[in-house]
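Technical annex B. To support the medicinal chemistry partners, we prepared a structural model of the target in complex with pterin cytosine dinucleotide, based solely on the information shown next.
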Amino acid sequence: MTAEGIGARVLRKEDKRFLTGNGRYTDDMTMPRMGYAAFVRSTHAHARITSINTDEAMKMPGVDAVLNGHQLVADGIGNIICGWMIHSKDGSPMNMGAYRALESEIVRYVGQAIAVVVADTPQQARDAADAVVVEYEELPVVVDSLDALKEGAPQLHPEAAGNLIYDWEIGEEAATNEAFANAAHITKMDIDNNRLVPNPMEPRAALAHFDPSEEHYTLYTTSQNPHVARLVLSAFYNVAPENKLRVIAPDVGGGFGSKIFIYPEEIACLWATKRVGRPVKWTSDRTEAFLTDAHGRDHHTTAELALDANNKITGFRVKTVANLGAYMSLFSSSVPTYLYATLLSGQYNIPNIYANVKAVYTNTTPVDAYRGAGRPEATYVVERMMETAAKEVGMAPAEFRRVNFVREFPHQTPVIMAYDAGDYEASLDAAMKAIDYGGFGQRRAQSEAAGKLRGMGMSCYIEACGIAPSQAVGSLGAGVGLWESAEVRVNAVGTIEVLTGSHSHGQGHETTFAQLVSDRLGLPTESISIVHGDTDKVQMGMGTYGSRSGAVGMSAIAKALDKVEAKAKKIAAHLMEASEGDIEIEDGELKVAGTDKKLTFTEVALAAYTAHNLPEGMEPGLKEGAFYDPTNFTFPAGCYICEVEVDPDTGVVSIENFVAADDFGTIINPMIVEGQVHGGLVQGIGQAMLENTQYDDHGQLLTASYMDYTMPRADDVPSFKLETTVTECPGNPLGMKGCGEAGAIGSPPAVINAVTDALGIRDMNMPASPNRVWQLIQDNGMKQ
Ligand code: MCN
């Protein structure tokens, strides 16, 4: 334990370079003779390409090449795939349409890449891309998933009849139906989850370089998981064998899930660099990002909750139609299935659950993971239902939840998940106290006296982080294992490099990971470097998503540290002629317990490398690696309460109070965790209040810039009150649960429950924009 160890509010080490403008992002990288790529993109949501004329473009200044999908296919570059196989309830495998990095026959969403231009400058490349003439024969378009399932709807892929990717189910249908047959009360709701665009600060970018002397490729890219990128680019897209491809994800300015996938542009740049014989760089502009970054959410759900006479839940029946856009992306199939429906038990003891999910193709941008991925959608359904059911049976929402909480652990839900530890009532109590629940009536009266409407809404979320274990996810169709790797290298002078397969793109790993090492070895964090994001330095890793880097990535480091400590103790015992069992590590020293004999960690490290006096048979050096495969997910949980005031004249909703009480198990750095929660809350509030992705009937994205897509800003959110409760996670050596997505998962239903409470209505869709709220006020006769 040190002053910078577990639990300390250490300032983020990485901020020194970020705040001084010294971050190095993909677009900052340059190479000699570098060319720039620009993409020719479809202007139609669904059309047959009848011709691609590149004559004019090829004549333009600085243009090196204009490459299209025919050449790509001829060079044997493989199709983009979804790596998680889902089977329909009849046992058939999911129906996946072909997705080429450059399409030359039928385009299926606006913005789809058709050709790539390489030129001397970005402007020349852009101008030449604009000069490529693509002729189309328009095809009928469908953008909404319910419309796509209708008889006679436009068909996207011959492989997916009726646009159906899969028709999947989980839980026991017959038992759930029986619970409904015997119910004392049934609450039924139609619940939509609005489509979101991720919007990380740094847009996607790629810089590819082919070295002909070694037949070797290097790709700098904005990736959350460079090793998975290398694996997929090698094994499935035939770009290059793994030993001939180095993928580097340098500083990455946020991802929120959208930088997990391998996109057409990365494939095209890698392929083009060899063809044109120079490095090729592409950086997305913001409108390209809106059109092509994988979107999130987009569910239509009908949910029913069955209660007995004591208001205990006896059954939950859910039917969801998930819009996956025009093509399947890397993990898209798992989001509305194993990341969504397996969380439909929420924090509650629900004996019978049955969920049916239909995943559907539409002429829209592909949809995949976005902060929370499936779990915000589940929480939104569960917590809208809980609040509504409570009101229908005349119970206070908090009391209705208390009656139904899971209280004994481990708890096996009917939808795969086995919750390991938690205390849901503790977070509920903490949140209610922090928001002064009892004083709400008075505050509401004050608002009413001022001509305003006031409401309070609650959300008790649970999520599953650190998707695991590998064997289990493999049996559920995942194409990769979900372990993590680490290597702890002690240098001869006692400084440390930790190589990790996790990737930090805003989460502060360079600080928290160093805190763990500092805690264990008693060294200052400044002597500990965290190395990540480069496949030539770190052999293999699974990257960062699903709030796994703490619980899984740091557990791998802890395992490697166990081995380092054991070897260091052996060396120290040998040098001090003591018994190994008597050696203790404290404050950067190895001490013989009960004596004043000691060696500094540096002395032991040096001894390991000089190797003049090591125990018989011991190899020189001090460097250990570990792979950690968790035994279960971690289950962060909490209670969020939101209090809003609505101006009935304008429909403007202002969030007056927001309390988040979270249980993340052991916390390494409370300041970083608070930052993670703040970010998540703002994103969740953005979804609930502002963000609304709109397509017109022709499949044109109407909200493709910040003029039309409203992102939350500082004055849209209040100063959050955060509370912490702790139940340690028994499934990993550190007792940690993930914190990176919780805010975005728990907050949307709290906001909408508060707005509907203020308006005195039952149903409404997100976002609670002034226009929508004002209209609801008119429709419900609240305003004359
Ligand atoms: N941590 C801690 N104590 C805990 C849990 C975590 O101190 N009990 C620390 C960790 O050591 C780490 C940070 O909190 O420094 C987040 O850890 P974790 O919850 O494990 O999440 P990951 O590091 O795996 O990050 C992924 C998560 C996800 S899935 C999304 S989406 C998201 C998020 O992180 N994207 C982000 N936060 C983001 N923050 C920024 N700035 N940018 C993004 O793209």
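Notes passed to the chemistry partners:
The longest strand covers residues 313-323.
The pocket of pterin cytosine dinucleotide is lined by residues 200, 254-257, 371, 505-509, 512, 544-551, 664-669, 672-673, 676, 679, 736-741 (CB under 6 Å).
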